[in-house]
Design brief:
The chain is built from six helices and eleven strands. By secondary structure, the chain is of the alpha+beta class.
Length: 234
Amino acid sequence: MAIDQWLFDQCHQGKHPPTLRFYTWTPVAISLGRNQLTWPRHWQDLTWQGSPVDLVQRPTGGRAVLHAGDLTYAIALPHPHRNRRQAYENLCQFLIQGWQQLGVTLHFGEPRRNYTHKANCFATATNADLVLDNGYKLIGSAQAWQGHTVLQHGSIQLRPNPALVQQVFGQTLTLQSDDITLPQISEQAIINTLIEAAKTCFGATFKCEPLSPAELAAIGQVVNSAPVAKTANA
């Protein structure tokens, strides 16, 4: 997520064009929201399939997200609507349209007053999230702002592992995987479809480019200066 932070900063400074990015996680990780100050103590020593579960801090808000079997997206760009609700509605359109092309209908969730009392971001769907017809929260998103520049990123829960969810959050999935109807296509096919939807929604063209050695070095500095979640508070 240091790459997301760096792209966000560069975009805000006018040094980098708007960027859309997709990625997965290895090893499994839990990302904490920017303002999330408490989390269960046992998260400090979690392991999964012989590897430690990383604990990282996001530059955006929200609650903890378990990154395992998910696809993460990030988009950084100047946005004319400082109203966050309007920004969510605008920026999520490419997700709604892309999944519609894949045969999946998504809707915004409903406002929730008790959201901050949940450790698990995916335990509750807010009006910034996208859910299936059966209520399953497929995509949870969060934002950060610098002036009129916004970073929005989110987790698309493609193949959550019930056993791991139980181990981390002490709860079962609200809906079992058998109840979730998603197309049996590859992550790359999903990414390609979402990129095409983004072209339409944003009236944009995209150029896929790797990060240069200088950019990677700059991002490394972000990593070294970023706060690390080392001590559990609850």
